[in-house]
């Protein structure tokens, strides 16, 4: 049985259907042959995520998500942590003209996609990542 936990050092009022989200994430991971053993999703501030970015990745910039895959191998069940900046997600939602809840879910799905092997370092990979994010958003919200 997978364990997906949410942590809220920064408040997130739009994440109402947590059980549904956990079930959806588990189903997607299982469908992609990488079931979730343990996934912690930590919603935090820009300052908190910037410190993690500096400390662990030696990057000195803000980001919306940092994904740490703690699994023993690429084929093992997922053991991971997703750190999501609520501040940056809100800013991105405003800049993109989309609802905050939608952008927040997109970022959660983005983290899961990284854990499933999707990359976003070059233009081709970025396009595929966006396509997969949209696909998951449509499936989840039944658009």
What can you tell me about this protein's structure?
The protein is an alpha/beta fold. It has a single domain (3-141), classed as 3-Layer(aba) Sandwich (Collagenase (Catalytic Domain)). It has helices at 18-31, 46-57, 86-96, 100-115, 123-141, and strands spanning 3-7, 36-44, 65-69, 78-85. A four-stranded mixed beta sheet has the order 1-2-4-3, with helices on both faces. Helix 3 (86-96) crosses helix 4 and helix 4 crosses helix 5 (123-141). The chain is globular, with a radius of gyration of 14 Å. The chain starts with a strand and ends with a helix.
Which SSEs are present, and which pair or pack?
Elements: E1 3-7, H1 18-31, E2 36-44, H2 46-57, E3 65-69, E4 78-85, H3 86-96, H4 100-115, H5 123-141
Parallel strand pairs: 1-2, 2-4
Antiparallel strand pairs: 3-4
By CATH, the topology is Collagenase (Catalytic Domain)
Helices and strands, in order, run as: EHEHEEHHH
E-strand count: 4
Sheet-strand content, in percent, reads 15-25%
Name the assembly state: single chain
Main beta sheet: 4 strands, mixed
Which consecutive residue ranges, at least 5 long each, have pLDDT under 50?
none
* Overall CATH architecture: 3-Layer(aba) Sandwich
Shape: globular
> Radius of gyration, Cα only, in angstroms?
14 Å
Percent of residues in helices: 40-55%
Q: At the fourth CATH level, what is the homologous superfamily?
A: Metalloproteases ("zincins"), catalytic domain
Largest beta sheet: what is the strand line-up?
Answer: 1-2-4-3
Instruction: Tell me the structural class.
Output: alpha/beta
Q: What is the CATH class name?
A: Alpha Beta
């Amino acid at each position: 049985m997978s364990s997906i936990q949410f942590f809220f050092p920064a408040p997130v009022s739009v994440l109402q259907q947590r059980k549904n989200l956990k079930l959806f994430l588990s189903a997607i991971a299982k469908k992609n042959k990488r079931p979730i053993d343990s996934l912690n999703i930590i919603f935090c501030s820009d300052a908190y995520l910037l410190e993690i970015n500096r400390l662990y990745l030696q990057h000195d910039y803000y980001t919306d998500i940092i994904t740490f895959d703690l699994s023993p191998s690429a084929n093992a069940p997922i053991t991971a942590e997703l750190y999501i900046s609520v501040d940056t997600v809100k800013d991105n939602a405003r800049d993109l003209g989309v609802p905050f809840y939608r952008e927040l879910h997109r970022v959660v799905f983005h983290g899961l996609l990284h854990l499933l092997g999707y990359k976003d370092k070059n233009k081709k990979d970025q396009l595929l990542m966006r396509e997969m994010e949209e696909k998951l958003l449509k499936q989840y919200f039944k658009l």
